[in-house]
Design a protein that fits this description.
Helix content: 40-55%
Number of helices: 11
Bound molecules: uridine-5'-diphosphate-4-deoxy-4-fluoro-alpha-D-galactose
Oligomer: single chain
Distance between the termini: 42 Å
Number of strands: 13
Order of helices and strands: EHEHEHEHHEHEEHEEEHEEHEHH
Strand order of the largest sheet: 3-2-1-4-5-6-11
Length: 341
């Protein structure tokens, strides 16, 4: 009998790509989303890709009753928690929104998991927990740094909550995946990133500039101590990232874990500068971007990239899609959105 994975936040950017990969790997998926940060575009796209309607609970996981209902009506073998806010700047302006939502929904989920006698819990964490790392690339043993934003702090606190629960409640097992910079879209161009308002992240800002929604892309800082003066990041393709979740779910469900709580970096291992990314986007897609150098953005780290070798050894996962293809997919998605408008 196939196993069922609950995906709170499954109508969002990462959740929708993960849902597709889980279905294609033979799992059943139940999506839950309060649709607070998205519309049904990605949910519809997922259904079109997999060729059937998937169960969608329009539920807010901050409401414990809503979470209990989903667990009561389904036999949940594993859950992947994406139901969280993710804008760094907004979290500084409105910390309670972040602590309230991101922590409460996770606690409710773990409560329901404990009540049913246990569950496999996958938490979507972030490279932000490493702060400005002292040496590169970062391994899972690299120290976490004091978070510089409430958003980053919620990632650290949720990691700790999961590790404490795993220790205290037999039957709960956990994996935290620390993502580097997820970018790109599904090759079908039916699902992708849908930022509300002005994008904070680099790739959606690039694609919106290319399509004419934004006038000019500002590259924040060209005086960093890096080869071309711009920041270095580890841009991980969204489909590759989604596949890492399938590997992690399989590891939990097949009893392959070496400890009840595990952490994996999910990145390519290759640093790419912001300027290089912009140049690659222009070359691959044959478009000219209107960009300028601008002052540094507060809070940005100079450079961070992953050592993803543990994920390879233990999960059998590594990044495969070429950056050229990833950036072509991001552009195809933006054009798909423009055609729909
Ligand atoms: N950048 C620009 N111009 C833009 C947007 C971004 O030059 O318009 C630059 C940034 O300065 C940075 C790089 O592009 O050097 C990447 O920026 P993103 O905002 O796309 O991503 P970050 O590396 O800042 O964000 C990541 C994760 C977050 C996490 C954060 C912590 O996406 O989840 O790291 O620093 F919180």
């Amino acid at each position: 009998m196939s196993k069922t994975v609950l995906v709170p936040g499954g109508a969002g950017y990462i959740g929708s790509h993960v849902t597709v990969e889980l279905i294609q790997a033979g799992y059943d998926v139940v999506i839950a989303d309060n649709m607070s940060n998205c519309d049904e575009t990605n949910y519809r796209g997922v259904c079109a890709i997999v060729g059937r309607e998937l169960p969608l609970y329009k539920a807010d996981f901050c409401d414990p009753e809503a979470v209990r209902k989903v667990f009561a009506e389904n036999r949940i073998d594993a859950v992947i928690h994406f139901a969280a806010f993710k804008a760094v700047g907004e979290s500084v302006e409105d910390p309670l929104k972040y602590y309230g939502n991101n922590l409460q929904s996770f606690v409710n989920l773990l409560e329901a998991a404990r009540a049913q006698g246990g569950c496999n819990v996958l938490f979507s964490s972030s490279a932000t927990v490493y702060g400005e790392p002292e040496s590169m690339p970062v391994t899972e043993q690299s120290p976490r740094q004091v978070a510089t934003s409430p958003y980053g702090n919620t990632k650290q606190i949720c990691e700790d909550i999961l590790s404490d629960c795993v220790r205290a409640y037999p039957g709960i097992r956990g994996i935290a995946l620390r993502y580097f910079n997820p970018v790109g879209a599904h090759p079908s161009a039916l699902i992708g990133e849908l930022p509300r308002g002005v994008p904070n992240n680099l790739v959606p800002f690039i694609t919106q500039t290319a399509i004419g929604k934004r006038e000019v892309l500002r590259i924040f800082g060209n005086d960093y101590p890096t080869p071309d003066g711009t920041c270095l990041r580890d841009f991980i393709d969204i489909v590759d990232l989604a596949k890492a979740h399938v590997c992690a779910v399989r590891r939990m469900l097949d009893d392959q874990m070496k400890a009840p709580y595990e952490i994996f970096n999910i990145g390519t291992g290759t640093p790419v500068s912001v300027r290089e990314l912009v140049d690659t986007f222009e070359r691959v897609n044959g478009v000219k971007l209107n960009w300028v150098y601008a002052p540094r953005r507060e809070g940005d780290v100079t450079a961070i990239w992953a050592d993803p070798s543990l994920a390879w050894r233990e999960l059998g996962w590594k990044a495969e899609r070429k950056l050229d293809d990833t950036l072509a997919s991001a552009w195809a998605w933006e054009k798909h959105l423009a055609e729909k408008e």
